[in-house]
Design brief:
Radius of gyration: 22 Å
Shape: globular
Oligomer: single chain
Bound molecules: uridine-diphosphate-2(N-acetylglucosaminyl) butyric acid
Number of strands: 23
Strand order of the largest sheet: 21-22-1-23
Helix content: 25-40%
Structural class: alpha+beta
Length: about 450
């Protein structure tokens, strides 16, 4: 059902505002204070995708000239990635206010400094391009959210198949390859990180590499398309089998990061949860097919435009959700969906298949009164249940955002702690929600009791 255009909410173009971005707004530990009860209304324009931008930055290691990226999100992980690359000898000119990043890897080093590497998971994406370009890489084992074991054996096995030798060191991994050659690689699981690393290693390898059971996430497609524009030959982009024909060298280009589908899904769910009416701009609805199917099944009105989404809801029904690699329902929207389902009529079931510890978030909403029963990797959510304000831990990027969402429909005040996790993945989270009418503030931890 189409929503008449004359009922569109007023435009608030947040992208042109002076976003200083993440935790730069207030120094030191901070919390979100959320007071619930207001349906979100208005327009929100979103950022480039975190999980694309970080890999596009790593891909700069593959070419000699200057790679110019735009739509780089103003999130905390971006300057960390910039630091990692600087440590590898890349000249990085990052302008968070303009959302641009220029990277020149004239003569990259093979050994990254430990501190920044251990802070974000995406640091592991330097492995493939470094081995491909320099023939050697040593990195501390990557950090990131504590949502599961998150091994890298699939990355390493693939590199071995291409002729690399892996040297295990305590807390570090070293990969040496005087010469990478094409190989036939079948991944046990369509791992996002392994697919990206192996593609980046293969673009400069000798001969053809086939990656079967490859991950197909839109951010991987963005990386592959950028590499193609730089001169790489990649067949099968967007499908489960990638065929990469190695080339001698890549040339520098300008590239705009693809929109952040997880950020879009988060605002869509927040809008639906609060019974709101929100227009989301700079989004590719086709990247969100499964989440939109589930929102519609929950009774949400979803109107797709070319690069926008209108979300309107008045009451929610229970639905079942199963997280799977793309095009399945994204694990990165699972905590947000659980909050939504806590307000839906009936019993919903949510099955988590990607990260074994992602249900640790449930304890947070249970403190607010949510009725969720966990059985292994299944959760039963009974709703609707009135949530009450509480102090929550923002355990990871998505859990922190979902905690704030829960606060939007809770009575009293909700305090989300450890919001530096949210800063890692959401640009201007608080001002964007405020512009949609949410009663949310970022406060210094020291000013909050509890
Ligand atoms: N896995 C292994 N061994 C490997 C590789 C993966 O066991 O060698 C397992 C992981 O432990 C996990 C599963 O396979 O259980 C999926 O891991 P995958 O490699 O697909 O994920 P990732 O590359 O570590 C990226 C995103 C995550 C997102 C997942 C799945 C980045 C920096 N991170 O992680 O994003 O959840 O893909 O889509 O791209 C987030 O943004 O909040 C986030 C966690």
């Amino acid at each position: 059902m189409a929503i008449p255009l004359d009922r569109l909410p007023p435009m608030v173009n947040l992208s042109s505002g002076p976003f200083s971005g993440p935790s730069l707004e207030l120094p030191g530990p901070a919390v979100f204070r959320v007071r619930g009860g207001t349906p979100l209304r208005g327009t929100v324009e979103l950022s480039g995708a975190k999980n694309s931008a970080l890999k596009l930055m790593a891909a700069s290691l593959l070419c000699e000239g200057t790679l110019e990226l735009s739509a780089v999100p103003a999130i905390a992980d971006v300057p960390v990635m910039a630091d990692i690359l600087r440590g590898l000898g890349v000249e990085v000119d990052l302008d968070m206010a303009a959302n641009t990043c220029r990277l020149t890897a004239a003569d990259p080093q093979w050994h990254a400094p430990q501190d920044a590497v251990t802070r974000i998971r995406a640091s592991v994406s330097c492995l493939g391009p470094l081995v491909g370009r320099v023939g050697r890489a040593r990195l501390a084992l990557p950090g990131g959210d504590k949502i599961g074991a998150r091994g890298i054996e699939l990355h390493l096995r693939g590199l071995e198949a291409m002729g690399a030798t892996i040297i295990d060191r305590p807390g570090e991994v070293e990969v040496v390859a005087s010469h990478l050659h094409g190989a036939m690689i079948t991944l046990d699981f369509p791992s996002v990180g392994a697919t990206e690393n192996l593609v980046m290693a293969a673009v400069l390898a000798d001969g053809t590499t086939v990656i079967d059971n490859a991950a197909r996430e839109p951010e991987i497609q963005d990386l592959c398309r950028m590499l193609e524009a730089m001169g790489a030959h990649i067949d099968g982009i967007g499908g489960p089998t990638l065929e990469i024909h190695g080339v001698e060298r890549l040339h520098p280009i300008s590239w705009a990061t693809c929109p952040d589908r997880i950020e879009a899904g988060t605002y869509a769910m927040a809008a639906a949860l609060t019974g709101g009416d929100v227009l989301i701009e700079r989004v590719r609805p086709s990247d969100l097919t499964m989440p939109l199917i589930k929102l519609r099944a929950a009774g949400v009105l979803v109107e797709e435009g070319g690069n926008s989404l209108r979300i309107k809801a008045d009451g929610l029904d229970a639905v079942n959700v199963v997280t799977l690699p793309y095009p399945g329902f994204p694990t990165d929207l699972q905590p947000q969906m659980m909050v939504l389902l806590s307000q839906a009529q009936g019993t919903s079931r949510c099955t988590e298949n990607v990260f074994e510890s992602r249900f640790s978030f449930v304890e947070q909403i249970a403190r607010m009164g949510a009725d969720v029963q966990i059985d292994g990797h299944h959760a039963l959510i009974r709703g609707p249940v009135k949530l009450h304000g509480a102090h929550l831990q923002g355990l990871d990027v998505r859990a922190g955002a979902a905690g704030a969402m829960a606060g939007l429909v809770a009575t009293g005040e909700t305090f989300v702690h450890d919001v530096h996790h949210v800063d890692r993945g959401y640009a201007g989270f608080v001002p964007r929600l405020q512009a949609l009418g949410a009663d949310i503030e970022r406060l210094p931890l020291a000013s909050v009791d509890g």
